[in-house]
């Protein structure tokens, strides 16, 4: 079930970091939850969840550089650079630590954040996350082919966007809503803007090639042994397969796995009430990570397979 959302409750704010405008939505009081969106998405995807969590938590949902209302510069769109950008955002907003919740591409950034800055990550929540295996939707692989950037203006043109918006509006006005389709359309409709398309291609090629996902965190997930970790996956995900959730669960000692039946790639949008119930239970039954530099050094020295 999808709650009625009011994005004006969570107005977009901006802060300048390294000379670039970074957009974010923020609300609530309490422990901080950093909500990271997927590729071609924006902070808007988290509004249904923010409505449900703001009473007990500080919810912070940024737009990655190259996405939403953040700047779209030329430059580094790697997972590592996005993770560093999130660290800098927390620093500018005077936030010391946060539970990091990442969906799809945002899940890849969340894992990178936990790896690079474990002292700032209290817990890790991976939602249909990228970066856990080679397999990924053929459509995303197709979009990484050479010269794709020259075809995107044709496929994602303003007339196509307007037509799609009209159809979606027509259906919604008649009470026909499909959260998964709506979220996918909102993401891809953003590609009608030239700056968004350019950033999208650079971001895609940083993590995906024609053969599949080119970046994997599997070999370093053992480092999350002392990090409370929740993995949430929709069993109907057609973009990133469910086997990746099982692989991550096996690779991360003491992790929790929640498979949401009848849900696709966007559990937080498709079933926000059920999603929040799972996340809040995880938050209330775990303690924030307190990994010390000495523990991290010991993990690295023992290496993978020593848990």
Topology of this structure?
Blueprint: E1 13-17, E2 20-27, E3 32-36, H1 47-53, E4 58-62, H2 79-92, E5 98-103, H3 105-116, E6 121-127, H4 138-142, H5 148-155, H6 158-173, H7 179-189, H8 194-207, E7 208-209, E8 212-213, E9 229-234, H9 243-251, E10 256-260, H10 267-270, H11 272-284, H12 293-302
Parallel strand pairs: 3-4, 3-5, 5-6, 6-9, 9-10
Antiparallel strand pairs: 1-2, 2-4, 7-8
Second rung of CATH, namely the architecture: 3-Layer(aba) Sandwich
Secondary-structure content class: alpha/beta
The CATH class name reads Alpha Beta
Number of helices: 12
In angstroms, what separates the terminal alpha carbons?
40 Å
Q: What is the CATH superfamily classification? A: Alpha/Beta hydrolase fold, catalytic domain
**Helix and strand run:** EEEHEHEHEHHHHHEEEHEHHH
CATH third-tier fold name = Rossmann fold
Query: Major sheet, described briefly?
Result: 8 strands, mixed
Strand content: 15-25%
Helix content: 40-55%
Poorly predicted sequence stretches spanning 5 or more consecutive residues: 160-165
Mean pLDDT across the residues is 86
Provide tags for this entry.
12 helices; 307 residues; two-stranded antiparallel sheet; Rossmann fold; 10 strands; 8-stranded mixed β-sheet; alpha/beta; single chain
How would you describe the overall organization of this protein?
With 307 residues, this protein is α/β, with parallel strands linked by helices. It has a single domain, classed as Rossmann fold. Helix content is 40%, strand content 17%. It has helices at 47-53, 79-92, 105-116, 138-142, 148-155, 158-173, 179-189, 194-207, 243-251, 267-270, 272-284, 293-302; strands at residues 13-17, 20-27, 32-36, 58-62, 98-103, 121-127, 208-209, 212-213, 229-234, 256-260. The strands form two sheets. Strands 1-2-4-3-5-6-9-10 form an eight-stranded mixed β-sheet, sandwiched between helices. Strands 7-8 form a two-stranded antiparallel sheet. Helix 1 (47-53) packs across helix 11 (272-284), helix 2 crosses helix 3 and helix 5 (148-155) crosses helix 8. The longest helix is centred in the middle third of the chain and has 16 residues, at 158-173. It is globular and about 50 Å long. The relative contact order is 0.15.
């Amino acid at each position: 079930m999808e709650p009625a959302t009011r994005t004006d409750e969570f107005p977009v704010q901006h802060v300048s970091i390294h000379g670039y405008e970074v957009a974010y939505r923020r609300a609530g009081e309490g422990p901080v939850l950093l909500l990271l969106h997927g590729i071609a998405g924006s902070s808007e995807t988290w509004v249904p969840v923010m409505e449900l969590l703001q009473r007990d938590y500080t919810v912070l949902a940024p737009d990655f550089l190259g996405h939403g209302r953040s700047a779209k510069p030329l430059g580094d769109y790697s997972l590592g650079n996005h993770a560093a950008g999130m660290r800098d955002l927390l620093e500018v907003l005077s936030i010391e630590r946060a539970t990091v919740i990442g969906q799809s591409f945002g899940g890849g950034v969340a894992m990178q954040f936990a790896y690079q800055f474990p002292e700032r990550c209290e817990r890790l929540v991976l939602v249909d996350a990228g970066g856990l295996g080679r397999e990924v939707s053929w459509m995303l692989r197709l979009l990484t082919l050479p010269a794709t950037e020259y075809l995107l203006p044709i496929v994602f043109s303003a007339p196509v966007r307007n037509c799609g918006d009209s159809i979606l509006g027509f259906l919604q006005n008649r009470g026909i809503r499909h959260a998964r389709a709506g979220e996918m359309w909102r993401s891809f409709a953003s590609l009608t803007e030239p700056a968004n398309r350019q950033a999208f291609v650079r971001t895609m090629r940083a993590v995906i090639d024609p053969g599949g996902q080119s970046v994997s965190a599997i070999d370093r997930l053992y480092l999350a042994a002392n990090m409370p970790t929740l993995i949430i996956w929709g069993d109907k995900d057609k973009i990133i397969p469910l086997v990746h959730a099982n692989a991550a669960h096996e690779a991360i000692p003491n992790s929790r796995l929640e498979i949401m039946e009848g849900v696709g790639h966007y559990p937080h949008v498709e079933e926000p009430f059920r999603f929040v119930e799972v996340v809040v239970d995880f938050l209330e039954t775990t303690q924030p990570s307190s990994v010390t530099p000495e523990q991290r050094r010991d993990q690295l020295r023992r290496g993978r397979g020593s848990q």
